[in-house]
Design a protein that fits this description.
heterotrimer, A alpha/beta, B mainly alpha, C mainly alpha, B: MetI-like fold, C: mainly alpha, MetI-like fold, 2 domains
Amino acid sequence: MNDADTHVATPGATTIATSVAPVLAPVLTIEDLRVSYGTPRHRMPALNGVSLEIGAGQTVAVVGESGSGKSTTAHSTIALLPPGGRIDHGSIRFEGRELVGMHDAEMRDIRGARIGLIPQDPMSSLNPVTRISVQVKEALKVHGLLERDRRAGNAQAIELLRSAGLENAERVAAQYPHQLSGGMRQRVLIAIALACRPSLVIADEPTSALDVTVQRRILDHIERLTRESGASVLLITHDLGVAADRADHIVVMNHGEVVERGTTDEVLGSPRDAYTRKLLAAAPSLSSEVLFSAVRRPVSAAGDSAELKPLLSVDTLRKTFRVPGDDADLVAVNDVTFDIAHGETLAIVGESGSGKSTTARLVLKLEEADSGSIVLDGTDISRITGAAIRPFRRQMQMVYQNPYGSLSPHLTVGELITEPLRIHHLASRAERNSIASDLIEQVSLSTGLLDRRPSELSGGQRQRVAIARALALEPQLIVCDEAVSALDVSVQAQILDLLARIQAERNVAFLFISHDLAVVRQIAHRVLVMKNGCVVEQGDTATIFDSPQAEYTRDLLHAIPGGSITAASAA
Amino acid sequence: MSTLQTIQEIETSVGTANPVATAPARADPGAGRHRLGQLASIGRKPGMIVSALVLLIVILWAILPSVFAPYDPLRANVSDLLKAPSAAHLFGTDQLGRDIYSRMVFGTQLSLVTSFVAVAIGLFFGSLIGLFAGYLGRHTDAVLMRVVDVILAIPMLVLAMTIVTALGFGSVQLAIGVGIGMIGSVARVMRSEVMRVRHSMFVDAERSMGAGTIYIVFRHVLPSAVGPVLVLAVLDFVQAILAIAALSFLGFGAPPPAPEWGAIVSAGQPYLSTAWWISTLPGLTIAVFAVCVNRIARELQERRTR
Amino acid sequence: METLKSVARSYIVRRIGLALLVMWAAFTIVFIILYLVPGDPARLIAGGDGGMTATPDQLAEINRQYGFDQPIFVQYLRALGGVLTGNLGTSYQMKQPVTTILAAEFGSTFALAMFALAVAVIIGFIVGSATVFTRSRMLSKMLDAIPPLGASLPTFWVGLMLMQFFSFGLHWFPSSGDKGFNSLVLPGVTMAIAGAALIAQVLARSLRTSYAESFVEIAKAKGAGRVRVFSAHALRNALLPTLTVLGIMVANLFAYSTVSEMIFSRNGLGLSLDKAVQTKDIPMVEGAVLIIAGVYVVTNLIIDLIYPLVDPRLKSLKRRSSRVLSSVREETVAV
């Protein structure tokens, strides 16, 4: 499967070539930074001596998983640590001035004016009750850069919005945040961050909440604007691919410490630290190892495939929703047709609003389709409703995206795992206990966790519990709705391994819903691409990735960050 | 006072508004072992110790008044008219020479039981309405919530006075009136809890596993909703104490000379400038008790949020 | 713009319709409750020693005059018709139209309630804001402990204590009467304390919620100062839940005028209701309850109309606006 490497464009390659330029006087120097959280008595260290340096005009990416301290590093720099956070030691020098211990009034002159912040979550980062123009102008006003004249001030705001890539800048300026999409809100926030032409921009996971194609455009735009103004960028990201594509230097963090730093091609090409290597190996990219076993694929089994009836056959499935305040109904799922064979993984990929999750819910009969048929193992279940559907649910189980919300908080792990058996009256209490022990071992967790409650588990552990629960009824189909999206890459890799192993052992079929093409490539036999409720194309994974037919699929593939990881490791 | 219905709703719901959001990003593997530590942490809160102690004493007053009260609450004593507080008469004596402290102790039972009945009425009917409205949704919800709107439109105190007009004066009547006045806020909290749980992902997961409605209600919805509703019940108990005391202050409670908290305070009003203690000390007792129960309710709530 | 106007109009019409529905239901419930009254209303009206001395002829005459000889449903329709035309019946005790009596009393109680509202809002906003705004942990903790205390004090006792200190002790304010501004102060403050506690609690809580939002961090990252972050961002977003609380508070102030007016011997709606309940003057009770329910309904109607001005998210609603709004309100209650 290593032929995939050659098919991926390598947009980052040029960046790497130019990044070896000599470092001028650094804009930001962080030395031995130690930060802790908690109450005055109980301190939990978050950073244990972090040092890094950003040269003028450079982009430095800080990469790490959750809890690595990457965001804390960013927030220390603008002295906006969350409540309970405190810098215990170290120095942050910015443009020749020491920021640690600086008076708040002085710090305010730097924030916004000299250092801009592009936040993580565009949806909640704009004040919902004031107009966009007011919020953009505020960034200028607090630093005395806003024109006194009302009209001139508005023109400034509109100009900023336009240069952030908003085409309808006049209209956007007069609107409120709830009237804008996530991508547009992020552009507004970029306009705010760059309003005073800062020399350093901190981008804290600026695009992780956005779809890949939007992510790509936004990152392109940040890159262009900062390059034009000569600003340095501190890019905080969990995504090695993003770092690889965008940064001159990469700093890898783990547990509050910098484990590795260097130019992008040094770090990616010849990682010295074990953690970096692990992170690189776990990061799904278009060159990652394929996990599913091809042998299991029924279509590739020699002979008459006509005899092998599909496990699930979905035909012209359709679902419309009534949108409050809109006259036209929203067609969420528009004549979707697909089959899943026994033991096969079909992935449905698409961006938000593509209808992929709704399709999954229709198949599971959690929502009723308007029309179309769903044939499960020879029975059309699309017209079966109410209590009559319950026996069929034994055949198909679900693993949800959010490992925190999908487990009842008041049940123990043991009760959670055997809950499906209880619902279907399938086993006595004693039997359930032994089944629970079996299942928890199958998902590689210790039986000691059986008495714990979900709140005591980590995200990865919870997702394993959810998988064990899905296995309890020995279903033939498991629907995974973004089941690994909320997890850190290393945990994600483990869960994907687990799913592949389960499939090999039990011949269970997966309907795998995901926005992440790199993950899909690792796990799916076949791929179905959706956009705006319609199927764009479907086919074998290799075919889709190697020779996509639809323009949209090519866009999606092109937008996946991390092309340069391939380039660097190939170099 | 029923003005506080909303704060109770707000406060109780706050605790549970979003369990996902309050869940730590990284789970603390030792969280389960902290339960003993939590109990011990009460020891570090002097306010809680005092509150629990006050609650205990007042409950003992209610159960065993004759043990705590040195005098007969009804017996007048002409030689002890309007005596200021002293070792012999902790709260002083009233215009008939009755020991005010003993009257408070003997009034406890009636006042607590009346408030308790009121809360029970509000809790029972409110929970029922909230459960049906929240789980059945749609038209049932719309109709039941309009009913709740109407109950809320008539303030608790006024509703109780209306009912007292109809059923006559007396403690049971007060309890019924205040209880009905509480239905609205309980129903709202129960409804929003039930809706939250019903729309939660874990209930969706239960459905996907094949669980039926009744199973989900009893195994998941009720256990999750009970917590906040019980916190509300404790907060409502404070409000019931205050409302019933106010109504008995206005003279709608048990007929004199029966000791009742609000009525004892009321009896002192004409002597406010000459014998300050008659109103002041019983009122202070009610206030201290209300503050302490309130404190306990808040502690319970904080515990739930954690 | 045309559509926006019609949207606004249909929104207002809907809210008014709903308000009328609540009023009608409140009237009906109160009517039903009050008809449970045991005993013969004619005897109550005849007066004297519970009407014992009244002759059967006199009683029959009263029954005919007041319509008690009619079936209950007819009496209900007549009462409802009366309410619609502003006629709340005749007081059993005063033998005057209830509308006339209560209209005369309403002004005094309205002034008292508005004064109490102003005091509650001012104190509540100061305490609630200061709790969150202060940098001192100590001060914040102390301020945080005040509202639960205020909410647990019995209103009637507060009234008596204020009277004791400020009338009998310091002679600053009169202990009774309803003449002039000075007479408003003590009864008004008595009623305001619980309200102030409520506002302070809700405001502090909503402010904390606002402060935890990312947009506040962005405001700080722009370089905005503490005052600007507080007023332009945190406070503006905390107003909606506080407004919701006011909707419930105002009617409760009227309800607690019963206590306050009795303690401070002020004439007004509360004292009338109090007397009416004591004497089983049913038309008076019904009238007073209806007026207080009306205060609740009107206050909430006004607040419903203010909501979209405070939060523009409520402005862009088209159809089913009232349902979306009520869900927003549920959310604010759940904040």
